[in-house]
Amino acid sequence: MSCPRDFESTIHTDLGDKMTYSRFLRLDKLLDCQEIHSDPPHHDEMLFIIQHQTSELWLKLMIHEMREALEYVKSDKLAPAFKIMSRIKHIQSQLLSQWDVLATLTPSEYTQFRYALGTGSGFQSVQYRIIEFLMGNKDAKMIPVHAHDPGHVEQLTTALNTPSVYDEFIRYLARNGFDIPAEVTERDITVPHQSNPGVLQAFVRVYQHPKEYWEAYEMAEKLVDIEEIFSHWRFRHMKVVERVIGYKTGTGGSSGVPFLRKMIDHRFFPELWEVRTHL
Predict the structure, then answer these.
(1) What pTM was estimated for this model as a whole?
(2) Residues 45-84: pLDDT tens digits?
């Protein structure tokens, strides 16, 4: 038989004018954001809403961390960026595991409230797009989708014109004795980076002499970690969508599963994958 836990006398109970857990986290606002749109209300819509809202919170943290890492790389301080990059990987793991929860939503359940989304779609996630831009998958065509919201256009335009974490890492190599072609360091950063033989040779040198170039070697592996789990996330997304809606078109107008499948093999950091063949 379990015994009741003693209520310790030091626990604060007079909280009327003090900072509390709820006030610090603004739970009054946060827990009031789960608005059911289906009519009559469908039980499983709550799952769908919380799944995507929590994803957006993790994306917000990922952006916060990635921008900090960018500043360290720009300042030639790779060591402090390593912990941040590891944290980003763990954030991605949380995002990946969330698909297991959404996968419990059956096609029969989803069809009963899917209509309530209208033209709403994860494709329209501004934060997801910012992360893609910060990782280097730049595409100006994605910005007009948000023309209805000038604030979102401004955020995306800023991210489009910000060097990606890979751009900054390659510039770091150029500043630290590696022969990086000017066509790479001075390229148009509003378009995706394309594999370059000079960059590949720089990474061959790093990977052949990891002790000599330990920080560059470690940073390269941190980036591979992040890209690998990103591809797992994309694959899991595609399979959950296939499981729940089959090959229906997406609510945002995309082809659905075929559209998602196209992006699974995308490479953010191409030379970091190619270098493995050249060692």
Answers:
(1) 0.94
(2) 999 999 999 999 999 999 999 999 999 999 999 999 999 9
Query: What single-letter amino acid sits at 148?
Result: H
Query: How many percent of the chain have pLDDT more than 70?
Result: 99
**d(C-alpha 143, C-alpha 124), whole Å:** 10
Q: Alpha-carbon distance 238 to 54, whole Å?
A: 19
Tens digit of each residue's pLDDT (9 = 90 or more) over 3-54: 667 778 888 888 899 999 999 999 999 999 999 999 999 999 999 999 999 9
User: Can you list the pairs that 210-213 forms with residues at least 24 positions away whose Cβ atoms lie under 8 Å?
Assistant: none
What's the residue count for the chain? 279
Provide the token pair at 65: 């961390």
Chain mean pLDDT for the chain: 95
What CA–CA distance (Å, rounded) separates 256 from 248? 6
Q: What is the C-alpha separation between 128 and 222, in angstroms, rounded?
A: 20
C-alpha distances in angstroms, 210 versus 21, 110, 202, 216, 217?
A: 46, 50, 12, 8, 6
